[in-house]
Amino acid sequence: MARVLLVDDDPAIREVLGAYLRQEGYEVVEAADGLEALGKIPQASLVVLDLMLPRLSGWEVARELRRDYPELPVLMLTAKGEEEERIRGLDLGADDYVVKPFSPREVVARVRALLRRSGLKAELTFGELVIRPREREAYLAGEPLALSKLEFDLLLTLAQHPRLVWSRERLLERVWGTDFPGVDRVVDVHIAGLRKKLGEDGDNPRYIETVRGVGYRFQEE
What we know:
The strands form 3 sheets. A 5-stranded parallel beta sheet has the order 2-1-3-4-5, sandwiched between helices. A 4-stranded antiparallel beta sheet has the order 6-7-8-9, covered by helices on one side. The chain is α/β, with parallel strands linked by helices. The radius of gyration is 19 Å and the shape is elongated. It starts with a strand and ends with a strand. The chain has 8 helices and 12 strands. Helices cover about 40% and strands about 20% of the residues.
């Protein structure tokens, strides 16, 4: 399930847009200001970003976001008639924009289109392991895997970036979306559970490799 970060200081807008996005089947993470948004970006598949924010403006959020997450889709919310805002937003790397006041249905349609263009693959295949991100399903040798939400998110995060080494802290930020005491333990426990369901040999893992002193990475066969 794609996760939308909805950034707006107006609680009414967050409530209405959030309801429409959830009805469409998306997970929604909310932020009321720019600093809060920066802390939640690692959780997001797409960001809906208002420009006029307290503490840190939408412009600054967009600049930081594009530097660290260049492929993350961004839909900007701009004021009516402010052509300069839209041009500046697109120059900063926004993928699309919607002018206030807007139709929530239009926002959902644009979110859907951006996610489709962003390359979320319908299926990832690694030998006998098949992952279907949109359906949040995984199969091993044709049999469905009974994964928890966190186990699926861990597997998908690792499998979408084969050979990339993820530290435990980075996995925690990406999958759990927060700092967490006992970071090593909570990630290791969930990795162990995921490996068990994948039928992994701990000494010679087929998919999830431990990188000593660093973290984990997904191995392509």
